[in-house]
Every structure is written in structure tokens, then in C-alpha cells.
Amino acid sequence: MPVIDITDLSDPRLADFTRANDVALKKARGTGHGLYIAESALVLERGLRAGHRPRSVLALGGTVHEAVALVGDDVPVFSGPGELLAELTGYALHRGLIASVHRPPLPAPEQLLAAARRVVILENVVAPTNVGAIFRSVAGIGADAVLITPRCSDPFYRRAIRVSMGTVLQVPWTRVGDWASTRELLTASGFHLAALALTDDAVSLREFAPPERLALVLGTEGDGLTPDAIAAADTVVQIPMRHGIDSLNVAAAAAVAMWAVGE
After folding, report:
1. Please, are residues 161 and 168 in contact by the beta-carbon 8 Å criterion?
2. In CATH, what number is assigned to the domain containing residue 18?
3. 8 Å CB contact between 73 and 40
4. In CATH, what number is assigned to the domain containing residue 164?
5. pTM for the whole thing?
6. How many whole angstroms separate alpha carbon 98 and alpha carbon 255?
7. pLDDT of res. 241
């Protein structure tokens, strides 16, 4: 398929890029599970390595050949001057290209837990930037999978993908239900659940001896974990702090906790 020069911004084939928000992309027509936006060749390449299927690419002139090399001849690559593409999308393509990519179906939690030894659970973390930063730490410091609760921000949101440097496309993740069913699932899979929270009986991470299979749960910004999450935990742990500070940003706390319980 030849590279397509953009001459008409109303071309329906460009609909994926015309200021579509994350919610609209998730409901995009002609897809099984919606779309996500991959910004930059690096992020697109990580999605391709994960087996994700691009629907189209929007590229500045200097990155057209790179885009074609990544997606092949069967995926349309649209191109045009930077000013025109910025008018189309609502922002400048500083990273050269963006791609609309089909969201893959989410795996069953049992499937992820079967081969995992370290799991991170995010309860109601609402900021996509925090979700993305946590995924980047998961990929770099080490955990086998991420489970997210129903009210947690979607890791496939554009900002989460961007902040994670595309690692949300590499780290296995899926959604879970309420705490009763999640606790049952973790027990059946042999996981010890450690909740990161400030309670009177919390154990310092310095003193916590992580078991063979560990699920570490972190809560929403500000309020932290819900009472149901704490009640479901086998152990409550906390990061030892200094200078009268009692907590860290959830993304920073996740990185510290993963390092502390790492192998």
C-alpha cells in the first residue's frame, strides 16, 4: 500500500487521529476491543513486538520510511507537513509519528497468575500518569504482571502509554473484580497479599520477608487503600520514612516497594 499524502482533513480514514479522546477510541467502530494511540516509533515497535495490530499510521515526512519499515505494506501510512498534522490531531507530532493500534483482548487473571511470582495490584489509581509510571517501574525493577481494579485508570490511555514509554504494551495486565473474588483468586493461586498502607499494625518493608509468591497492592492517590483491600491482605506493610513524612506519591511508593521485595 503506497504512502498516502493528506490533502483533505475530513477524509474518514483519518478519523482515528482527529482529536479522538481515549473513551472514543475504546469504542471505535470496526474493532473488536477498541483502539489505542502509540506515539513514537519506539512505542509502536513495542506494541508490534507484543503482537498488537496497527490500523493506520500518521507520520511526518522524515519518519515515513521508518513507519513503513515497521508496519509493512498492508497498513496505510498517512503523511503531510507538520502544521497540517497538528491541525488534524490538535497537537504537534514531536516524536515523528503516531499510530492507531487495535487493543488486544485482556487475558483472564488466572492465566497471568499461573506463571507469576511477583504481582502488582492497583486499586483505583485514577491518574494515567501514575499508572504509566508504575508500569515503567514494573518493567524495569521487576514484576510479572499487573492487576487493576474496575475504577483504576486504563493503562491503554494515551498519557499512560506515553509516560510508561510503551511498557504498558509489554507488561502483562488485566482487570479484576471485587475484593472477595480477587482474594479468592489469589489464594487459589498461592499468593500472599501485602497491602501498602499506614496502619498501626503495619510491618516495615525493612523487616518484611517476602514469600515465594507475592501480590503487592497499592491504593489511590490521596486516600490510599480502601478498608476492603486492607481487610483482604495477609500483611500490611509500610515504607520507613524520615523527617516527619508519612508517605510517597503512589508511583514512587510502587518503585520502592518493588525494589524492596525483589529477588
Report:
1. yes
2. 3.30.1330.30
3. no
4. 3.40.1280.10
5. 0.91
6. 29
7. 67
